[in-house]
Amino acid sequence: MIALVTAAVSHDLDEDLPILGAALERAGTQFHCVNWHDDVDWSKYSAVFLRSPWDYHLRRDEFLARLRVASSATRLFNSYDVVEWNSDKRYLGELMASGIPVVSTRFVSAADESLVRDVLDELGNDIVVKPSISAGSHDTLRYRDASVVLGDIVAHVSRIIAAGAVAMLQPYESGIDERGETGMVWLNGVLSHSFRKGAILAVEPDMGNGLYAAEDIASRNATKDEVTLGERIMTCLESRFGAPPLYARVDVIPDADGKPQLMELELVEPSFFLAYAPGADDRVASAFTNAQR
N or C end: fewer C-beta atoms under 10 angstroms in the chain? Predict the structure, then answer.
């Protein structure tokens, strides 16, 4: 018996769960869906897989504390070390230092107007501000004419810092408006499938479900250059953690020259968008089934 970890507020929003559940049944693997914040006897499961605990960023310390308990009782996927590292987006700085092309990012830990102005001078006047601890575009805003609303940006940075995170400032990469994002799902370091995600911040994001921005998803085959970047990232992860993670989602967008750059690396609770990739459900189910043994 394995556990698929979700949350009360997100269980019914997880479109992958019924698809994955059917594939696990075909593979002969029994499973329970459990909420991460409930009192759970983790030891009764041969393995625990994080699927849609999509409110974890609002209570990250509590989330990590519960995962420490789970990882001491059974096998946790992805591992606690991976989740702790990836649940704060400052990991992007480490990947940049390793030579991975990443969307230009400045981490700001003080709500200082002169500091923010310096960052705008470097990044341009169309920027995105987001918390380092976030999911689903939570508290992520685009400022199209940033110098005019400098006070709003400083207030946004202050709010992020008060919530216990670091503010991330990034240029808005206009190439995403036409191509969108390419998401690539990797299982044990091997590419399973890819998909296209439309530009969330091209217009005001729809946060109507209260958890994450509504997404425009379609099927897509990743390009050779995108796959090569994904392979480089898997190599970095293997070097850092001793092995590639069981599952990983690499989201890339084009830079000004059309070359892929990393936007986000999802190792905690990524949607797999299984409905857009025939056969992906059985590949994920097989990876989960084999991991528990």
Answer: C
Do 194 and 135 lie in one domain? The reply is no
Which CATH number fits the domain that encloses residue 115?
3.30.1490.20
Indicate the SS3 state at residue 1.
coil
Distance, CA of 141 to CA of 123 (rounded, Å): 15
CATH number of residue 50's parent domain? 3.40.50.20
Q: Cis before residue 78, ω within 30 degrees of 0?
A: yes
The verdict on 181 and 161 lying in the same domain is no
| Containing structural domain, residue 268 | 174-277
- In this structure, the answer to whether residues 161 and 180 fall within a common structural domain is no
Q: Give 16-76 as a 3 state SS string.
A: HHHHHHHHHHHCCCCEEEEECCCCCCHHHCCEEEECCCCCHHHHHHHHHHHHHHHHHHCEE
Terminal-to-terminal C-alpha distance of the chain: 11
Q: In what order do the strands lie in the sheet with 75-77?
A: 31-35, 2-6, 47-50, 75-77
Instruction: Give the model confidence (pLDDT) of 143-167 as tens digits.
Output: 999 999 999 999 999 999 999 999 9
> Where does the pLDDT of residue 204 fall: very low under 50, low under 70, confident under 90, or very high at 90 and above?
low
For residues 136 and 226, membership in a common domain is answered with no
pLDDT (0 to 100) of residue 206? 46
Residues in the chain: 293
- Is residue 133 within 8 A of residue 164, CB to CB? The reply is yes
The pTM of the full predicted model, rounded to 2 decimals, is 0.93
